Amino acid sequence: MITLSYKGKNTFLEAVNEKSGSDVLECYQCGKCVSTCPVSNFMDFPPREIMQMIKLELKEECQMANSTWFCLTCSACSGRCPREINIPAVMEAVRHMAIEENFHPDSKQVKNIRKFHEIFLDMIRRYGRNYELRMMAEFNIRTRNLFKDMHLAPKALLKGKIPLGVKSMKSAKAMKKMYEMADKLEQQSK
Amino acid sequence: MKKVTYFPGCSAHGTSEEFDQTVKMVMKTLDVEMEEIPDWNCCGATSAHTMNESLAYALPLRNLVLAEKLSNDTMTVPCASCYQRMKFTKIHMDENPELARKINTAVVGEGQYQGRVAVKSMLQYCYEDVGIEAIKTKVTSPISGMKIACYYGCLLTRPKAITQFDSPEYPMSMDRIVEALGAKAMPFDFKTECCGASFSISDTDVVLQLSGKILEMAKESGAHAIVVACPLCQSNLDMRQPDIEKKFKVRYDLPIFYLTQLMAMAFGYPKDKMMFSKHIVPVDGALAHIGEVIEEPKKPAKGKKAVKAESEVE
Amino acid sequence: MARVGVFVCFCGANIADFVDVPTVVEEAKKIREVKFAVDYKYMCSDPGQQMIRDAIVQYRLTSIVVAACSPRMHEKTFRKALSDAGMNPYLLEVANIREHSSWVHQKDKKAATDKAGDLVRMAVAKSIANEQLHEISVPVTKRALVIGGGIAGIQAALDIADARIPVTLVERSPSIGGRMAQLDETFPTLDCSQCILTPKMVDVASHPFIELIPYSEVIELDGYVGNYKAKIRKKASYVNFKSCTGCGACWQKCPVKVPNEYNMGIDTRKAIYTPFPQAVPNKPVIDAKHCTMLLKGKCGICAKFCEKGAIDFKMTDEVIEREIGAVVVATGYDLWDATPYEEYGVGRYKDIINSLEFERMVSANGPTGGLPVRPSDGKVPKTVVFIKCVGSRDKAKGIEFCSKICCMYTAKHAILLHHKVHDSRAYIFYMDIRAAGKGYEEFVNRAQVETGAVYLRGRVSKIYQKGEKLMVRGEDGQLGQEVEVEADLVVLATAIIPDKENPALARLLGISYDKYGYLSEAHPKLRPVETAKAGIFLAGCTQAPKDIPETVAQASACAAKVCGLFAGDTIKKDPMVSTVNKDFCSGCQNCVKVCPYQAIVTEDIPLGHGAKEMRTVAKINEGVCQGCGSCVAICRSMAINLAGFTDPQIINEIVAI
User: Which end of chain B, N or C, is more open, meaning fewer C-beta atoms within 10 Å of its C-beta?
Assistant: First the structure.
């Protein structure tokens, strides 16, 4: 049971609106986004419900849900939304706020998704380009699933589908600097 | 002779080498000289914008700044994800100069962004800048007999405000190119449904479900093969096909071609240069249809639909 | 010597909250010409008006200033108070200290009060120069023109004609009846639409006071209220209606097939045709765009088989004129083209139809024998999906409004489907159910209970083909589950939009329209059937989406307005019109060019007293002039003055501050 009453401005909604450049209040709960979204059945709450939760200022529930982590920014929803809400931007706003405020959903799925992204970004920081084989290996190790996709390994490696090495950037140092600056910019905008 | 700046993307030397190589062949035949951005970096793909907004702008911005140092006014990007990130960044930097200045500080030592270079996906470049007529003139070995489902995925035509190209729901640019090559593009309802993208590694079940549905509908359309213009789509539909077949207890046998592989073949390049050996799902079954004659489908029973006026003067 | 009375209104809190009313009164008293100044809570009330009447007599006032709300509200009220006290009503000036001061300067009370004082000062100065004006009487032609022969036009025409006023009813298509003639049954009574409509159609045809002009269009309307002149183009029908008996031999023989508009293109008609069996008039016309004889000079079979020799290929369009006192516009609606909904495959799948196509299919006189069928293979569907809000309430695809009637007619369609195909089920995707009329909620409930129709709350996101079925994907918001319905047939309740000729017609008539093409009413709440142009009225969906009961009510309202307009022998007109001082007029004719109402012509007068040479000057028809002031502004000789806003009056205002 959720108890509601007026406790001042809905700062969560205002923050999401500002970050996304959209207005969550426009949503009239038609549900077109839900049946459009390819991954809505993997989400704790589909996009429509996230909109409603933002309106109800259920900030923690939004940020602890796995919904924003499953959004692939495929933009199928926003293309069909009759109120022209930029739904991927709203999901991204909630997710970025969750990262800033250190919210970590418990589910293994989300943990895996986060690990994947962290590893990917680490590869770029080191090499300037993605080292696909190393990324897949590290992912397996860090998710303690050593034999994931191993059945693909022989075929893929033999055919040369996944190269053994990486052609890294010459000025990979530029990446380190960029990452530092980007982190600084993120700190400033908090 | 056209000149265009080229951004290969990370998978060009890896999992989508066939795409990169056939793009180069096709562009050569079409009299387009490609100039690769020297020392480009990864665009950040899904991971950057998922985790860190500033980094998600900075990574593509560096490439845009480097591209401006070359003399061409257009940059073409084969990978749909790289294209999306670059175009997205370009549009936001152009619309918000203050943000552009801020992000530029993270692009160390390369200069200021000016917004001079247009960003187009490889599909868009072929369709708009090269054109169907020019493509037709280069076809020496038409691939007639093949029935192909054109799969666009999410990022080539969506969102409309970013891509400003073709239809976000039922695009036809790739279909028209495929027809120009001599093949038959099958009516296909799932051409823009998501394949599962980067969940390929982090949550494979998502890909199995989504790509599985795409394969199912492509098979239902009567296609012999699927053609794509995105490395991740190709990987999901091809590399994961055996897993999908196993999980859902079906058989598809649908090879997944890159558009440029088909173009290169139609332009007369030998089959062994197409790197078909890299594909997981064998291609020969589909290629065997080349040269066949496709029968027109039987006209369905006449329902009560309008008849065109017989004496209307055009 | 001017003796001005100033009356400052509190307007409850509207003015008083931000303007210090007593101060305004004190400031007014300081003006030399003001002999009486007072404030009151509500000047527009009876006591307020009585104050004005009493003061006029007691203080022998020569002009009155009321400082209150906008003159659009109560200028008439106060003018009447003046004339009740024996004073010319045009010696009143209203200073708008509400909309022009208190409402817009709420942050600075002192500034608002100062401004109110200035406005009063200006009004006082202006009123001193006010002239005694008298309403102008113009004659009125007692004939109404009704444009459009659907239920709105039919009802308006009948009501006006029943008041013994002649009506000219112009209809663009060969028969009257409009959309209602295309319907099978109407909600909420499930009356057979044709059965309740055709008696009215016959009444129109046989009414002694109605001149029915079918297959025609209004091409010009000149003039002003009570004195319009309309030009009507009667399209050539190539059939002599007097000789024709309506036997039908001609259209049976015609070899040409054209998509049948009455049946929404589902089947065909001939090039010579009547739109439907109950057409009024029941005489065929030849469609010149498709007739082989008219296009190529070959065929002519219809003429060969006509026993009465009624067919005349030499006929031409005829333009007729009518003198008109008032116009009722009733041009109806069209269905929005759903092609922008690419995700539904509109245009790609044959088995997606719109609501009017479904209505035609289930109609007894329809092209499919009264049964809904799949256009792809002619089979009768069992699972039918109805999608509401296609185009409506969709800012992204262009139509933001609600089309009002679709919730009700979709419930009706569910019932009709159940009646025609007992072994079937309707699945209805909706966002809301809008059933606000009398008996409407009960009707929707009936649809649900009697037919077992499944209502799913959620917009459809995609339709795709699987085998012979159409898969309709949406979310059932109540269950929070995605659903896919395996449909045999999909019916789209598309938005209703005004007739696409509305903007052109509006420009022809000199009235305004909104961004969708709906003709604009004078005031959305209190003047829903009038337009900003006196004498032109709106009925039916030409003004906004509405159902049949509302359309009929609006049509009757128009008729009442017309009858009111025609009640006397003359119409009284506002005397605030322009006049030309011929002595100053140079004859440059700039005013003639700039007048939006074509109220100014030229006349030749002698160059001087007794001179033989002539010179050209402007002449303003005070009956047509609407007092817009464009001529005053453009006249470089300052020869034109607008009564009520003369140069002396305006200069006084400026000097006062």
Answer: C
